[in-house]
Specification:
Elements: H1 3-19, H2 26-31, H3 48-71
């Protein structure tokens, strides 16, 4: 991940935990510099770039389902 993105994640993490009265561990700050994707697709079938594209698309679908649940009508 680019250093600027990792630094922004760390900043947000520190702010969120400070509001709750906690401090961030060194391990958690280190993990903020990574994006972990877990899949059962073999590396010969999907590249890292393709996995990231699919992850972003899936996240948008998840947000859409959440919106439907929040504003949908239950009959």
């Amino acid at each position: 991940m680019p250093p600027a993105v990792a630094d922004e994640r760390r900043r947000k993490l520190r702010e969120a935990l400070q509001r709750q009265g906690y401090t961030v561990s060194k391990a958690r700050l280190a993990l903020a510099g990574w994006t972990l994707l877990v899949t059962n697709a073999p590396a010969t079938l999907i590249s890292v770039a393709e996995a990231l594209v699919l992850y972003r698309a899936r996240w948008q679908i998840e947000l859409l389902f959440k919106l439907w649940k929040q504003h949908g009508r239950n009959r």
